[in-house]
Amino acid sequence: MTARAETGNPLPLQGVAADFPILSRPVHGRQLVYLDNAATTHKPATVIEAEARFYRESNANIHRGVHWLSQQATAMYDAARASVQRLLNAARPEEIVFTRGTTEAINLVAQSWGRTQLKPGDEILLTTLEHHSNIVPWQLLGEQTGAVLKVVPVSDAGELDIAAFDALLGERTRLLAITHVSNALGTVVPVAELTTRAQAHGARVLVDGAQAVAHQRVDVQAIGCDFYAFSGHKLYGPTGIGALYGRAALLQQMPPWQGGGDMIRSVSFERSTFADPPQRFEAGTPNIAGAIGLAAAIDYVNRIGLDLIASHEQALLARATAIVGGLPGVRVIGTAGHKSGILSFLVDGIHPHDLGTILDAEGVAIRAGHHCAMPLMTRYGIPGTARASFAMYNDFTDIDALAAAIRKAQTLFGTRRAQ
Amino acid sequence: MNDIQDSLRELYQEVIFDHNRHPRNFRPMPDADHQAEGHNPLCGDQLTVYLQIADGIVRDASFVGHGCAISTASASLMTEAVKGRPVGEVEALFRDFHALLTKPADDGLPQRDFGKLAVLTGVREFPARVKCATLAWHTLHNAIAGEHDIARTE
């Protein structure tokens, strides 16, 4: 990766890749070009070390031991919660519930808030852009409560149809569950504006922030949403840890969704009473090391600076759109005016899975398929796409490698045309 | 260092490209007496296999659907391979072909002449792609068995 600093490219961030040990690992004898960051990001050495150090030096269960190690582990876990609070600019740390990730956070809201609040005929408003994890929990909830799903359509460019959104909002709309950034197309959704409109109709708003938090500043108070969910592993942190932000007043009214230790106030065989949020929603021993690793990831991202990361990735997206999108036979899927660092595309005559295999042989890792967004693929009449997604450690040489690998695939498939 | 390039050439042989570009027996069969649908939920590949079986012999075989080059070529080659064969032989070929692609080499691979199907041996080096090559065969198996469930690779 050191050679990259010498290419003299004008990107805002230089040399970041050196902080990520896995990026120096060769793949098929070549330098890894990792462009599957929307699936998961790599971890800087500080995150790997923070988890390892916790197990080496501070491992103990939390919230229940009077001994020294338990107190230390508890303090670290609580500090991690405060770190997430600051990342999202939540008003209070109690508004942050640790979960396994975005999926579990959404299921928590569906099963706790949704099951107690929704009645037959109530409407949940989704969009065609949603990942399966922001569709299926609401379908399950619909089967349990009789609530029905309404879906905001998208344009050919991948932007939400705002007129249709307004038309779909009605008296029965109880919840808007909406992605902040489309994982398949990169579209950035104007969530603050849509939150205001939905709340004016008395609806609650949940934002799926899985593809947003690592790539732009997120301020839940500025958005004004009621819930916000994200995963640590897409933010350079460990897998198996994520968080749900919920407005304090809402969380306070919500019943537990899982029972167990750590979430109770008192238990008898006749009746149990439950702890206040966030403990009420964190039954059992949580992923303590994961939370500490996530806090280290947030520290790392803050040190680099989310504004710099955002402008770096915008430069990568612009370059990729021009170079890859400009190759003969390549069609970009998702051309919204406001996009995050995700480029979905099709190559004439080459199925995305074949392309993925050939690119891999060149050391270029991309995602091929439906990206857990099958309704969106159906909207475009395609089985899937090839997707390159960027992170702070990518640079222009990665995009050149991607373009060269696509040309190589076209040569192999006999579909290469002159540029 | 060039092992992967060799494996890639083994995988994408001219026969595969030919059958991908011009799949054989790629048509619906309105008078089929056996048919089944196959679906790989991980990648979205989808196909329908149609058969006409009379006197225990596969008289006709065809397919429609969409998928990658490996899955399309495998389905195309399969229809050519099974036409005119007794059902029992086709089922034996399915078992052997499946073993050829999935069994560890030191377990002893099936010894038989696979004909053109042998070009798919290249997927052994690409574990993520084995299911592309076997989807059509699982679907064929269901069609013969008369199972109405959709064949899945998962």
Q: What can you tell me about this protein's structure?
A:
- The complex is a heterodimer of chains A (419) and B (154).
- With 419 residues, chain A is of the alpha/beta class.
- Chain A folds into 2 domains: 2-43 and 305-413, Aspartate Aminotransferase, domain 1; 48-302, Aspartate Aminotransferase, domain 2 (3-Layer(aba) Sandwich), CATH 3.40.640.10.
- Chain A contains 13 helices and 17 strands.
- The radius of gyration of chain A is 22 Å and the shape is globular.
- The two termini of chain A are 29 Å apart.
- The relative contact order of chain A is 0.17.
- By secondary structure, chain B is α+β, with helices and mostly antiparallel strands.
- Chain B has a single domain, classed as Alpha-Beta Complex (Sufe protein. Chain: A).
- Chain B is 41% helix and 19% strand.
- Chain B is built from 5 helices and 4 strands, in the order ααβββαααβ.
- Chain B has a 4-stranded mixed sheet with strand order 3-2-1-4, with helices on one face.
- In chain B, a hairpin with a 4-residue loop joins strand 1 (34-40) and strand 2.
- Chain B starts with a helix and ends with a strand.
- The model of chain B has no long low-confidence stretch (mean pLDDT 91).
- The A-B interface holds A 28-29, 350-354, 357-358, 361, 368-370, 374, 377, 383-384, 412-414 and B 1-5, 7-8, 11-12, 17, 42-46, 66-70, 126, 128-129, 132.
Give a quick summary of the entry.
With about 425 residues, chain A is α/β, with parallel strands linked by helices.
Please supply descriptive tags for the structure shown above.
heterodimer; A: 419 residues; alpha/beta; Aspartate Aminotransferase, domain 1; Aspartate Aminotransferase, domain 2; 2 domains; seven-stranded mixed beta sheet; four-stranded antiparallel beta sheet; 13 helices; disordered N terminus; B: 154 residues; alpha+beta; Sufe protein. Chain: A; four-stranded mixed beta sheet; 5 helices; 4 strands
- The secondary-structure class of chain B comes to alpha+beta
Structural shape of chain A: globular
**Tally of DSSP helical segments of chain A:** 13
Main sheet summary of chain B: 4 strands, mixed
Judging by the overall fold, what is the CATH architecture of the largest domain in chain A?
A: 3-Layer(aba) Sandwich
Strand arrangement in the largest pleated sheet of chain A? 4-10-9-8-7-5-6
CATH-defined architecture of chain B: Alpha-Beta Complex
Sheet with most strands: strand arrangement of chain B: 3-2-1-4
The percent of residues in helical segments of chain B reads 40-55%
What sort of overall outline of chain B do the alpha carbons produce when their principal axes are compared? Answer: globular
Return the average pLDDT of chain A rounded to an integer.
95
Overall tally of structural domains of chain B: 1
Order of helices and strands of chain B: HHEEEHHHE
- Number of helices in the DSSP assignment of chain B: 5
Q: Classify the fold: give the CATH topology of the largest domain in chain A.
A: Aspartate Aminotransferase, domain 2
Integer count of domains of chain A: 2
**Rg of chain A, Å, rounded:** 22 Å
